[in-house]
Design a protein that fits this description.
six-stranded antiparallel β-sheet; about 300 residues; alpha+beta; ten-stranded mixed β-sheet; about 35% strand; globular; 6 helices
């Protein structure tokens, strides 16, 4: 007998909860904000809206289904199952944080604060949850969003929905060699603030910022396009480092290879710095389009 579907509700701690952890009580947190000309009322209001949304979503799960909840900080330790329907309750960025841990499970994005969130990935309201879960279980229409992957030479692998960043773990210069995957030769030696490889979903955020700053003429990909853009941040020319390879695109058949020439380089996706690949001298990593896509319920 096959298992009933499981609804996995993904959420994150609210700003109010973080303030209480830092200051101990509501009164202390309110005093801290008021002493800086701010009111705690807005923070409390957003907290209550988020918690109410989570309760409404949980109540909409069919009685015959199983239910689990996971907080953002615990995603890297949570085991998603093939039969799961993942319900992200919160902001657009939380969908991206979740995507890297999935393997084709359908995702429903619930906006807890309409009007404040852009709603690019959290497209639905709490009141739609029951119908969306039925649609997801019945193979309802999804949009497959392209993801980017990094695969190191020691088989470590990282996925991201928006972008993958490679660079120094601090504010130091990253040193490496960069070139197309499969190219003969070691690639161009570079010293920079790091390399960013992004998708069409990421083209509304950090990737777009670099695209605008660079004045790039490359067309930004759409979220479902099987195409990536990459940029080197602040490449430094010197007698031993070059700046001829500072941006480009990757299609389905192409990859970008980076070989480390410094003590340590970190590779992380979608701002999840705590869940990063750690690479050291001589190691290489390939960046390209992931076989896995995020199945976002339409």
């Amino acid at each position: 007998m096959s298992l009933a579907p499981r609804a996995v509700l993904v959420h994150r701690r609210t700003e109010y909860e973080e303030l209480i952890d830092r200051h101990g009580t509501h009164g202390q947190a309110a005093f801290f904000l008021s002493s800086r000309g701010r009111s705690i009322d807005d923070v409390v209001g957003r907290h209550h809206r988020t918690r109410q949304a989570l309760r409404e979503v949980a109540a909409a799960v069919p009685l015959t289904w199983r239910t689990s909840q996971v907080e953002r900080a615990d995603l890297d330790r949570f085991l998603f199952a093939p039969e799961d329907v993942v319900v992200v309750v919160g902001q657009d960025g939380l969908v991206a944080n979740t995507a890297k841990y999935l393997a084709g499970q359908p995702v429903v994005g619930i906006d807890t604060d309409p009007g404040r969130n852009p709603g690019v990935l959290v497209r639905h309201r709490c009141t739609d949850t029951a119908a969306l879960l039925r649609a997801a279980a019945g193979g309802g229409p999804t949009e497959d969003l392209t993801m980017v992957e990094a695969v190191a030479d020691d088989t470590q692998r990282l996925l991201a929905l928006n972008e993958i960043y490679l660079g120094s773990p601090g504010h130091q210069t990253a040193r490496y060699r960069l070139g197309p995957d499969g190219e003969e030769g070691p690639g161009e030696a570079q010293a920079s603030s790091g390399v960013l490889v992004g998708t069409g979903t990421g083209a509304t955020g950090w990737l777009r910022s670099l695209w605008l700053e660079r004045g790039s003429t490359a067309q930004l990909p759409a979220p479902s396009d099987r195409r990536l853009l990459w940029f080197v941040r602040e490449a430094w020319p010197s007698p031993v480092t070059g700046t001829t390879r500072v941006g480009g695109h990757l299609d389905q058949r192409e990859g970008l290879r980076l070989t480390v020439e410094s003590d340590r380089i970190v590779v992380f996706g979608d701002g999840m710095e705590a869940d990063a690949l750690q690479l050291t001298w001589g190691q290489s990593v390939r960046l390209g389009i992931a076989a896995t896509a995020l199945r976002l319920l339409m």
